[in-house]
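Honest question from a wet-lab person: if I give you the sequences of every part of a complex, can you actually get the arrangement of the whole thing, not just the pieces? Trying it with mine:
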Amino acid sequence: MTNNCTRSFDEALLSGYLDRALPQVESQKIRIHLEDCGECRALYEELRTLRETTMSTNFKVPDDDQWPELPKTRPSRFSRSLGWTLLVSWLVVISVLTLWRFLSQASDALEIFLILGLPGGLLLLFCSVLMDRLHELKSDRYRGVQR
Amino acid sequence: MILPKPALASPVMDAESDLVRRACSGDLMAQEELALRHRRSAYLLALQLLGNVDDAMDVAQDAMLRFFSNLHRFDTRRPVRPWLCQIVRNRVLDLHRHRKIRNHESLDARDAEDNPRFEPIDESIDLERDAARAELRTRIWRALEKLSHNQREILVLRDYQDLSYAEIAETLSIPLGTVMSRLHGARKSLRRVLQEDSSSSTRAGAGRSGAPQ
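Yes, you can. This is the full assembly:
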């Protein structure tokens, strides 16, 4: 504002007036000043146009199917992870026990190959995927974001 | 000057508190409704703060995940929206910080190289007035990138998200009185950037018209 303006209030109140965030007394004071002061009125009108234009901006939002499954709440996540842990532990113990039993009874190399072939192959494939995932994790651009 | 105190309780807020309470107790319908009600707003805020569609989706998804993980800690007497805005804002700040540390460059610089900036939908009709307004909308959107993070943030919260001063104060954790002065400063900066932008385009236009063919 130049020297022609005789306002006796903080200029920021113009924004408060624009946003209808002022008490009635303050609001009335600004309204009366705007009637008299061309410079403040010009600034106010400019800010009003900017605000109205900004508010009328449209943004495209993603469709519902682009959103992932609803995030789980703490109790359901806890029971789910506990369930998975129990299931995986059970599978590991059962597999190791079965393998040990078969191996202790196996008499020749062919029998050992037949016993170890399938689980060994699956284990190697799993390790390969795991190594790829670990490598991917190291180069993940969001790795450092605080979780 | 004393700003009017915001009303904390309202019928809308009571219904929302009830929804949050039901979601916390494991009601799947309430969780679904909360997600539907707020994820759009989380995405839009992230988009308006970041200007990039992919980053906005990542931030919004992460924010919704945190929103539900921490729902049991939420004070149901308070409105949900400022709390969600705060979560989105923190994710955005984390992203900025992370990229600055990793790449020694600003997010905007990275975006300029790798991703085209998002532009708002232009649904202008043929009328001259609408066309002028659509152009101003685009200019405002671009001018926001030239403002400081604090200025952009407060303008987005007020003028795009239409949050009240009390909600902005809660989201940014600043006193209510600071909201108005910061917002006014941001609006004046936006106006200045737009004016500079206009005068530089005018100069460029004049230069082009006078240039030899």
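Two things worth pointing out. The radius of gyration of chain A is 35 Å. The interface with chain B takes residues 9-16, 19, 21-23, 26, 46-47, 49-51, 53-62, 66-68, 70-77, 141-142, 144-146 of chain A (CB under 8 Å).
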